Amino acid sequence: MFLSASLLSRACAAGLLFFVAVFGLHAQPVDPLPSWNAGISKARIVAFVQAVTEPGGKDFVAPADRIAVFDNDGTLWAEQPMYFQAFFIFDRVKALAPKHPEWKTKEPFASVLRGDVKAALKGGEHALMELAMATHAGMTTVEFEQIVIDWIATARHPKTGRPFTEMVYQPMLELLAYLRANGFKTFIVSGGGIEFMRPWTERVYGVPPEQVIGSSIKTKFELRDGQPVLMRLPQMDFIDDKAGKPVGINAHIGRRPIAAFGNSDGDFQMLQWATAGKGARLGVLVHHTDAEREYAYDRNSSVGRLDKALDMAGPQGWTVVNMKNDWKSIYPTPAAR
Amino acid sequence: MFLSASLLSRACAAGLLFFVAVFGLHAQPVDPLPSWNAGISKARIVAFVQAVTEPGGKDFVAPADRIAVFDNDGTLWAEQPMYFQAFFIFDRVKALAPKHPEWKTKEPFASVLRGDVKAALKGGEHALMELAMATHAGMTTVEFEQIVIDWIATARHPKTGRPFTEMVYQPMLELLAYLRANGFKTFIVSGGGIEFMRPWTERVYGVPPEQVIGSSIKTKFELRDGQPVLMRLPQMDFIDDKAGKPVGINAHIGRRPIAAFGNSDGDFQMLQWATAGKGARLGVLVHHTDAEREYAYDRNSSVGRLDKALDMAGPQGWTVVNMKNDWKSIYPTPAAR
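ok -> structure tokens follow
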């Protein structure tokens, strides 16, 4: 075994590169959050990450315990004029209508088919649940996954005309990546359907299916033509909202997050649970204050109502992100994606 | 900026090490499964791992989809003369007895307190459930975690006198590590209690809490002295056994495993679900054939009964590990841990 002079010199070059990379001789400080304006929100986030990752520091947290949880609707992507999953439900009712002639005269389906969303939702939660079950159950998990993939690839937001997956918040994409680069495991904890999110969260957010927690319906294992399938049943299993969020976090993750990000009263208990733990904690609320670039809403909104959680942010030491002032941009530029 | 001669020479040394590591000039083939005897079982496992990790190969699987699921009782650790969690239940009944004077005359508690396990379990599933609820509910998740940590640190197996966490199978520890070294994410999918396993699976198996799936009871978020807690309720939420295993896998992981390891009919549907997917798949059953070093049991065992799954292993193409012949050692040597 021998090493030629050329190989030796290459090895030395590799060594120098290695040396520079490790000791940072030429390192320039790179802003990991370029879409965040300088200010208290950004400063608090960066200070928290530095504190929990500083070896030997008093707030150091082992990588395994660096768990961060994110609400989805209104926190990672937009949620106006209604939850994006509602668009999915209405589109599915229309697609399934030929198989259900009775829907023409049966509420809330009839209103949906006439395009009258407001009338369809008059029946409140019960009506929405009926629509959800009619569109989310009765097929296998594999079939449902394909339905979601097909829909998300073509559906467009009524106001912006953009695919829903491009109405994600660029500053939050940077935040997800920044946390992961610092050893965090990032989870989604959403009131939305778990199987509605999983087919695209890895591609869009870098969050794999096993790190997505959401509301779910029951499934049943059975054989169909000798092949094992999981059938989706028209029966709620778990609602991952409000006091359900800490329950869902415990069931899926089994340890308490050290950072939690939300935007509404539905996230109140999740932030409470995460920030009540010992050691350094970060609770963040995204406050929708930007009527021009996105939407402005809080206490009186029927979607994403932010009231009690906003009042408690101060006493709880949570950071309230002012979208208008704190975010340089809202959505990713299509070219950049 | 300058580099001293000493730094340069160190950089060169680093470069050489880097070169050797990358190009493997001095590499010796190391057996990743030293406690497995050469044979068809080991050969199949290694061939599968090589096939799914070979870049450009016809069976290549992207790292994100390399999901492997493991049953716990009888697959990763022993399960005789009864599931280890049953020892926990009986110990807890004894510990809690002073607070429950009525247990002295109330079955199945009275039999447990007299040390008569057989009589205690005469009531079948109903009796066991009553004992489980009395010992697993009524405290917070944090309190229960500590109870498990304290118990597992001190409890001993009646036959071997060893801590239960040392009655894990050395060949399976190697297999877990081997899969992870090849980009797999390893999950536990057990009929046992999810919160009974999570406090120690990371230390013992290298499987973090968020990759543990098991049976669970309901929890409820509430405030106690102003602090948020999750109370454990005496009500089953999910039974992660038989047809429940694919359901649990889908709920927690959201994609189909490509490899599944079990040892009993309780794992039948899990292996069926995993191996019915497209592409290369690995289904493995651990067959307890070693009366001398461990236990020998299958079709007629009340614990870990292996009957239907054993019959179907051939037609399904599953690998049956013959513990007596395939495993060089059973438990880790205490010195090695």
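Chain A touches chain B through 50 residues (CB under 8 Å).
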